[in-house]
Amino acid sequence: MKYMYTIIDDDGNVNLVEEPSPDYTYTYADYLKWKFEERLELFQGKIFKLSAPNTAHQKVAGNLYLRTRLILENQKCQVFIAPFDVRLPVKNKKRDTEIITVVQPDLCIVCDETKIDEKGCCGAPDLVIEILSPGNSHKEVRLKFQLHEEVGVKEYWIINPVEENLIVYTLSNEKFSDGKMYAGGDIIRSQNVIGLNMNVTDIFQK
């Protein structure tokens, strides 16, 4: 099955574009030229459409961002909320025409300021947080888990707003450890971002 994407060009013209064959590989240079109505990511050069976040997703994202921003106020680590492009180059291939994976984590924390530029982040964040929505497929969750592990994200949180819990994975020997679940009343203490301690109940505050 092929998908149609709406692209708005620089002159404001609306065009429907069909995704090319699986043999075609997009780059970040292509991505920069697009003005999509939908939110998209690139996974190894292939278009990946993001599901629209629901109300519960946005409330959790807002709670996390505000609390994390306060915690990191006097630190070098910076927190960013979607939409925020994170380019994930392979080895030292950092040119726009060489990068074929661009993601937009719900939240991410970057402690290496050399990775931050006017376009977003180039390189793996120290911590990535993804918030599940009803539209998330098992394939999407598995794909992102594998991707963050492969590129060296040190810590990865997957949050479930419906069940009001989250699973934390930490990188060890290039592999994510078995996830540890946290629920209401538990305190999360990040192993990779100094001072990032948070009560799970505060994340799901209405």
Structural summary, described in words:
- It is a single chain.
- With 206 residues, this protein is α+β, with helices and mostly antiparallel strands.
- The chain has 2 domains: 4-49, no CATH class; 55-203, tt1808, chain A (Alpha-Beta Complex).
- Helix content is 20%, strand content 32%.
- The chain has 4 helices and 17 strands.
- It has helices spanning 28-33, 55-71, 138-151, 200-203; strands spanning 4-8, 14-18, 40-43, 46-49, 78-81, 86-87, 102-103, 107-110, 116-117, 120-122, 127-131, 155-160, 165-172, 175-176, 180-183, 187-189, 197-199.
- Strands 5, 8, 11, 12, 13, 14 and 15 form a 7-stranded mixed β-sheet that branches. It has a 4-stranded mixed β-sheet with strand order 7-6-10-9, with no helix packed on it.
- A hairpin with a 4-residue loop joins β12 and β13.
- The longest helix is centred in the first third of the chain and has 17 residues, at 55-71.
- It is globular, with a radius of gyration of 17 Å.
Layout of secondary structure:
Layout: E1 4-8, E2 14-18, H1 28-33, E3 40-43, E4 46-49, H2 55-71, E5 78-81, E6 86-87, E7 102-103, E8 107-110, E9 116-117, E10 120-122, E11 127-131, H3 138-151, E12 155-160, E13 165-172, E14 175-176, E15 180-183, E16 187-189, E17 197-199, H4 200-203
Parallel strand pairs: 6-10, 11-12
Antiparallel strand pairs: 1-2, 3-4, 5-8, 6-7, 8-11, 9-10, 12-13, 13-14, 13-15, 16-17
Give a short synopsis of this structure.
By secondary structure, the protein is of the alpha+beta class. The chain has helices at residues 28-33, 55-71, 138-151, 200-203; strands at 4-8, 14-18, 40-43, 46-49, 78-81, 86-87, 102-103, 107-110, 116-117, 120-122, 127-131, 155-160, 165-172, 175-176, 180-183, 187-189, 197-199.
